[in-house]
Amino acid sequence: MEFFEIAGGNRLKGTVEISGAKNAALPIMAACILVDGETVLHNVPDLADVRQMQVLLQRLGVKSERDAGGAMHLRVDDEMNCHAEYEIVSKMRASVCVMGPLLAKRRRAQVSMPGGCAIGDRPINLHVDGLRAFGADAELINGDVLLRAKKLKGTDIFLGGPFGSSVTATANIMMAAVLAEGRTLIESAACEPEVTDLANFLNACGARITGQGTPQVIVEGVTSLKGAEHRIISDRIETGTFLIAAAITNGDLDLPGGRIEHLRAVVDRLRQIGVIVERGEKGISVSSARRLEPVEITTQPYPGFPTDLQAQAMALLSLADGNSIITEKVFPDRFLHVGELSRMGALLRKEGPTVIIQGTKKLVGAPVMASDLRASAALILAGLVAKGTTRVHRAYHIDRGYERIEAKLAAVGASIRRLSE
Domain 22-231 belongs to what architecture? Predict the structure, then answer.
């Protein structure tokens, strides 16, 4: 099994090109089930989750391949199989994004229940209830959700959940709605840029979607979609991670492709901490003061502070001059990294969905274990500044969402190696 070995203490300086957004690419790839003809996607990141989606789509009759320039070409060549099996869904939760397209295009979708994960249980009842509102029948068979419909009819659907709007449920409902008869109103839709990117792709294919990026999305059904060419937006979570990497190492980075308008809540908190974030000619530039101010952070659905940057922010605030508070309101159980950061000298106290962070002068290198994708990033960031050597085990977690992170960090001065044990 691979791990990262990091010698801390190096200041990061240079340029890091931001990759395409995983959370935009995956549902857009799934949406190709709806499309007649070839789709060409640019800026698709080369990640484990993307490769896993390619495997799933291949089994569902969608051929995909990259050309010499890195663009991904997708085309449906077989519409017989409608079953997303447990073997794949259990490895990548975003597999549920095929549910809406399969039902809309093939009138049948059988998708394995994804179950829980390291950051807490994330049920799919909003997906199923929303698709049933179109007129589909749903039943549970051997751990799979089976949805069937002779036709889908547009309707009004409310998608508010206990922890805010669901991004993947919004994507599934929107993808089903584009081929439903009549008008669909999605109320309490997720507003994330990745949802907007999906809507823009579908519109390029001939869909009629308005209101994307707001809580109220309207879809006028069409009879078919045609292949189109589309560029995936840049990854705001990768951008935020490198913003924090510069801050924690007192570094100075330029991030071409980074979009400050997708990270306003993050930039607001970073500026209060003492980080200098500016819009650059091609992206974002970031540098940091030596003294880090403590702040309070509450994660929220977009445009609030993203849960996917909570762990990284905790690593940064471990070195602030004073006490900080982070409250997790999206996934209240997403704190497995607390124990591992504590092994490196962070002074953290968890109280329910809140962690109180007492700033310390230094972190120390230690062997630590990554529990999930974003926790991996937080431990790497802590290792960049820790005194001594840090080993972050289970490197496979980071490969799900960061494209060649060790190469990007090494290119701007980090001492980091990927090794096998």
Answer: Alpha-beta prism (3.65)
Task: Report the distance separating Cα 241 and Cα 233, nearest Å.
Answer: 16
Query: Strand ranges (DSSP E) for 280-362?
Result: 283-288, 296-299, 323-328, 347-351, 354-358
Query: Which of the following is catalytic: 82, 117, 191, 205?
Result: 117
The DSSP H or E segment spanning 102 is helix 99-106
pTM confidence score:
0.96
Domain with CATH 3.65.10.10 in the chain: 2-19+235-420, 22-231
Nearest to 259 by CA among 287, 229, 239: 239
CATH code of the domain made up of 2-19+235-420? 3.65.10.10
Q: CA dihedral in degrees (328, 329, 330, 334; nearest 10)?
A: 30
List of the chain residues with pLDDT < 70: 115-122
Sole residue written with tokens 């059988």: 110
pLDDT of residue 290: 81
* Integer Cα distance of 264 and 255 in angstroms: 16
How are the residues of the chain apportioned to helix, strand and coil, as percentages rounded to the nearest 5?
Answer: 35, 30, 35
- 94-147 per-position pLDDT tens digit: 999 999 999 999 999 999 987 545 545 557 889 999 999 999 999 999 989 999
The answer to whether residue 191 is catalytic is no
Residue 398 backbone phi and psi in degrees, to 5: -65, -30
- CA-closest candidate to residue 50, choices 408, 407, 405, 400: 400
Strand 13-15 to 252-256 pairing: parallel
